[in-house]
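Researcher: Structure for this, please.
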Amino acid sequence: MKKMPMKLKDVKTFVFQSGRSVFTKEQFSRLLSIAPSTAKNYMYLLVKEGYVKRLRRGVITFSTDDFINATQMIEPSYISAWSALFYHKIVLQAPAKVFCITTKNSYNFDDLGFHYYKITPELFYGYEKTIRENSYYNIATKEKAVLDMIYLNLLSPGTLREVRRHLNKNRIKEYLAGYEGKYAKKLNKVLLGA
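Model: Predicted structure, token format:
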């Protein structure tokens, strides 16, 4: 194995200054301006020494925050559905998994508790970037979380009646502009009574 020019604790400090917490081998290589093979060695040693956690093959994290890990592991993505509603204090029970929306294929990482649902790029909006632990995650507004849940059939009519009173009607109208056809009419009727 080649001698590494940077100490592991120095790598950790450098990473925290980058504003990211989750890295693929390629991202880590670019960040440190080193060869991918050297980045792979660093990643191995960082995991071995307990500085980072391996999320999946070729992906490490410096964070213990599930929202950061979920939205940076698969990009683009944002936290939505039950996870976002819990974050916004609309529901009281924390979901057992982190629900994410992405424009990539749907994925379930049951071992991590991360579930990704695919939507079309035209509907990939209505989220905010939140800074935490010198890093970030993207999370849906409560209105967009409800729209995503209806779109993905994750919300029962009874629960919709309960959460609807917490929603901003003007924001819903703004978000509904992204939906077209019969589906837009259905959402208007269900959410706004129009």
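Researcher: Any notable elements?
Model: The CA atoms of residues 143 and 167 lie 6 Å apart. Residues 66-192 form one domain.
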